[in-house]
């Protein structure tokens, strides 16, 4: 049996800002059995248009199918597959770490090394906010792990093309 070559892909999708568009996009993945890694939606510089960043593990055939299916959804204006070498992608993470008076300076130093910010301090914990690549966020967690991670939340990735290239919607 041939082994399928799955790899991580980032799709940037411009959509009309209408009720239920996220549900429709997610349902398309569910119906076809595609595995979503993350789906993030946000406003754009153009009123009435949102950008959805989709991260998916798929082979080349599946990613082509996903792109074609997304383009068939009426409120979808444009779908672009972002290449890793021409893309800036970041995620947000907040982590609550055990920290008391004895080890708080070390926890804060660790956050500073990763250009993360301490956003809350309590008697027995600190909350750290970090943005970056998945690798950077994983490395920060590895450093914080010995102190004790109490809670963790991480967003999906958002991404843009490097340089002057934009993703202006067609027919607008």
- Enumerate the spans where pLDDT stays under 50 for 5 or more consecutive residues: none
Radius of gyration based on Cα positions: 19 Å
Structurally, how many domains make up the residues? 2
Strand content: 35-45%
- Amino-to-carboxy terminus distance: 47 Å
CATH fold category name of the largest domain: Alpha-Beta Plaits
Query: CATH superfamily assignment of the largest domain?
Result: ACT domain
How are helices and strands ordered from N to C? EHEEHEEHEEHEE
The CATH class name of the largest domain reads: Alpha Beta
Extended strand count = 9
InterPro entries: Acetalactate_synth_ssu (IPR004789), Acetolactate_synth/TF_NikR_C (IPR027271), Acetolactate_synth_ssu_C (IPR019455), ACT-like_dom_sf (IPR045865), ACT_dom (IPR002912), AHAS_ACT (IPR039557), AHAS_small-like_ACT (IPR054480)
Function: Catalyzes the conversion of 2 pyruvate molecules into acetolactate in the first common step of the biosynthetic pathway of the branched-amino acids such as leucine, isoleucine, and valine.
Subunit structure: Dimer of large and small chains.
Catalytic activity: 2 pyruvate + H(+) = (2S)-2-acetolactate + CO2
């Amino acid at each position: 049996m041939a082994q399928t070559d799955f790899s991580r892909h980032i799709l940037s999708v411009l959509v009309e800002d209408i009720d239920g568009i996220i549900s429709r996009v997610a349902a398309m993945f569910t119906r076809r059995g595609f595995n979503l890694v993350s789906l993030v939606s946000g406003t754009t510089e153009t009123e009435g248009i949102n950008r959805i960043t989709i991260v998916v593990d798929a082979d080349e055939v599946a990613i082509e199918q996903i792109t074609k299916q997304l383009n068939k959804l009426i409120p979808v204006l444009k779908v672009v597959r972002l290449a890793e070498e021409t893309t800036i992608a970041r995620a947000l993470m907040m982590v609550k770490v055990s920290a008391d008076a004895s080890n708080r300076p070390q926890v804060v130093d660790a956050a500073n090394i990763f250009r993360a910010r301490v956003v809350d301090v309590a008697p027995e914990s600190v909350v750290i906010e970090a943005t970056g690549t998945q690798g950077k966020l994983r490395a920060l967690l590895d450093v914080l792990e010995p102190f004790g991670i109490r809670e963790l939340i991480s967003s999906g990735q958002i991404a843009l093309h490097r340089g002057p290239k934009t993703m202006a919607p067609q027919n607008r």
